[in-house]
Specification:
mainly alpha; 69 residues; single chain; 88% helix; 2 helices; rod-shaped
């Protein structure tokens, strides 16, 4: 198990958790104020969320199952 890859994976996952709350709050405010810019920003945050979650899960799984030494 590569501890450096595991730490990097957890960092990416923590960023995705940040974007879960940021996207939800942004979309809620955009919907209540009917603001198109904030809706676009919320969708961008959702895309960031999926990117960081994918990268984090891939890095974490590579830390456990990668056979390179």
């Amino acid at each position: 198990m590569d501890k450096q890859k595991l730490a990097n994976g957890m960092m990416w996952i923590s960023m995705s958790i940040f974007f879960i709350f940021t996207a939800a709050m942004t979309l809620y405010i955009a919907d209540s104020k009917d603001n198109l810019f904030l809706k676009g920003l919320g969708i961008f945050f959702i895309l960031c969320l999926f990117f960081f979650a994918y990268k984090g899960l891939k890095t974490t799984l590579d830390a456990f199952f990668d056979n390179e030494k």
